[in-house]
Amino acid sequence: MRHFFTSVAVAALLTGPALADPSVEVMHFWTSGGEASALSVVRDKVVAEGVQWIDAPVAGGGGDQAKTALQARIAAGNPPAAMLMLGQNIIDWADEGLLGNVDALAKAEGWDAALPRAVQDFTKIGGHYVSVPTNVHRTDMISASKAAFGAIGADYPTSWAELNALAPKFLEAGIIPLAHGGQAWQEAYMFEAVAAGVGGADFYRRAFVDLDDATLRGDTMRAVFDQMATLRGMVDENAPGRDWNLATAMVINGQAAMQIMGDWAKGEFTNAGKLAGDDFACIPVPKDQGDAFVYLVNSLSLFAQTDPEQAKAQEVLASAIMDKGVQVGFNIAKGAIPARSDADLSALDACAQATAASLSSNDAGGGAVPTFAGTHAARAAVVGAATDVVTEFFNSDMTAAEATETLADAIADAI
């Protein structure tokens, strides 16, 4: 993405036509029920402040379609005011000189003190707040049906061996062990969760942040792919092409026992009126090598505005997102935890409170690692190359040894 646009395109972007009425167009891929409910909390606050909200959703939970749509908008010199984007993609757009900032607002509202360093790393780029964080997600999570586990009289797994042993019991009870949507981005998130669970935080950091070739080709990575192969056998034959929230619905209705997915899946349970602890459990994937916490920061990045009224409307959006009440309301619906470390978590459910506590302890202990699938740990080109290998493996009879070498080669070529 870096240096993708010509100076003509950049000039067109920065000199686009001004709009008469203050408004913010928000482009995003939050289109499931829980996601839409969460975004409405921000929208209502913005509208209450007298700014028109122009919603621009792009279907596709992984965001690939949204990135393609954004590139077309940029090339035409017609960017949205704000765009949901992740990790290194934000840094790439900032390096292109296309993002504005809300530094004055951030200083006035004390964002530096309110936001953890892990959040600032993906919102404050080059010393400027070019993106406004809505939440922090945990990606190495399992959503589990309490009814399904009750049907076989089993406890929730605390090791991969325990999880693997549950599969035949669920199948005998007529329950799909693992709900999955066979899309490349979903398999990438499953892969990073398994990697954190099998190898631990240090292995994860060496493999996906440092991109260390020896680690990528080592025995632990083969063990990760072996576990992925075992999970492949727990998925039903209708998984290919299934959207993530439809897989979540399989757990909600008891058709499936578990889903390995970021804690945004919890938003679907909440939207369906299900209660954490009573109807479902949200537990980290098993950790065989010590605790780890894979985090993702969601934020809306801000494109540069030349019209002062539109810039002011953009500040209204930013301030609304950072409002403590909005942060809490948004994350009740979204299934995540607030980006602000000073938000009152008492209204959040037990799952979210446990997630917040785990992030705090892992951050202090070195166990918090950035999502690879969500392009925080590495640039999009590297993640894309790795994802191609992971999804090919998950949907073929490729061996773990073959996948390990293929993954390392693909990442080496993409660096």
Give the SSE layout.
Blueprint: H1 7-14, E1 23-28, H2 33-48, E2 52-57, H3 64-75, E3 82-85, H4 88-95, H5 103-109, H6 111-114, H7 117-120, E4 124-125, E5 128-129, E6 131-138, E7 141-145, H8 146-152, H9 160-172, E8 176-178, H10 184-209, H11 213-216, H12 219-232, H13 244-252, E9 256-260, H14 265-271, E10 280-284, E11 293-302, H15 308-322, H16 324-334, E12 337-338, H17 350-365, E13 368-370, H18 380-394, H19 400-414
Parallel strand pairs: 1-2, 1-3, 8-9, 11-13
Antiparallel strand pairs: 3-11, 4-5, 6-11, 6-12, 7-9, 7-10
Helix pairs in contact: 2-14, 2-15, 2-16, 10-12, 10-18, 12-19, 14-16, 18-19
Indicate the CATH architecture of the largest domain: 3-Layer(aba) Sandwich
**Strand percentage, roughly?**
5-15%
Assign the structural class, choosing from mainly alpha, mainly beta, alpha/beta, alpha+beta, or little secondary structure.
Answer: alpha/beta
Output the CATH homologous superfamily of the largest domain.
Periplasmic binding protein-like II
Taking the alpha carbons of the first and last residues, their distance comes to 14 Å
In the residues, how many domains can be counted? Answer: 2
Average predicted confidence as pLDDT: 93
Main β-sheet, in a few words?
7 strands, mixed
Question: Count of DSSP helices?
Answer: 19
CATH class category label of the largest domain: Alpha Beta
CATH topology of the largest domain: D-Maltodextrin-Binding Protein, domain 2
Q: Assign an overall shape.
A: globular
Can you give the helix content as a percent range? 40-55%
The low-confidence parts are: 1-19
* Annotation, overall tally of beta strands: 13
Oligomer: single chain
How big is the Rg? 21 Å
